[in-house]
Amino acid sequence: MGETLVTELFGDSARRREARRRAAREFRKERAGAEAAVALLMAACGGFGAAEVLARRYGHHLVPPAWAERLDAELRTLLWGDPAVELAAYLLWIAGMVLLLLAVLPGYDRMELLRGDDPAVSAALSRDGLRRSLEDAALGAPGVVRARVSVGWRITVRAGARRGTPPEAIVPLRRAVLARLEEIGPQRGRAVAVRLGRRG
């Protein structure tokens, strides 16, 4: 019986980890902007080079020969230690590192991945949906007449209560928000800060 319990616990934990990984892959935001910019730049450079080769084959030039000769002469006078060469190398290195980080790091997304035990099922909720749900839970607390929730590195609840509401009303307010958060079940855990103001 003990072996069965341990197997179930570890198996359940493994299923949860697999479900989290699949959800992260499923809802990972693609960096379409960066990919499109790099693809457009490469296509433009390649297309211009191909067009110049074809033009020269038939005796024409897209770039005036005088410009090309002047640029060639200036590039031949540069040395590896020249400030312009070093600056260009640093800029290219920075651009390469930025592109590498964009390829490796996940994109910022407005979706909240939800916990699950089944790796075949992935679920997510928009951050706006999470915020509205938590605001609705806060408005259900005794005495609360307005609520505003911000979702970032932590969840901050700013609520306003009607006149005469005791300071202890913050306790059921916090419980209501935490209970709703537990029902939703986001994968990412956050600290929850609750502030309650009273009119008058």
Q: Return residue spans where pLDDT drops below 50 for at least 5 consecutive residues.
A: 5-10
Widest sheet, order of strands: 3-4-5
Helix and strand element order = HHHHEEHEEHE
Q: Into which percent range does the helicity of residues fall?
A: 55-70%
Number of strand segments: 5
CATH class of the domain at 124-198 reads Alpha Beta
Distance between the termini: 62 Å
What is the count of helical runs? 6
**CATH fold assignment of the domain at 124-198:** Alpha-Beta Plaits
Structural class: alpha+beta
The percentage of residues in β strands lies in: 5-15%
Instruction: Supply the CATH architecture of the domain at 124-198.
Output: 2-Layer Sandwich
Radius of gyration: 29 Å
Largest sheet: 3 strands, mixed
In a nutshell, what does this entry contain?
The chain is α+β, with helices and mostly antiparallel strands and about 200 residues long. About 55% of the residues lie in helices and about 15% in strands.
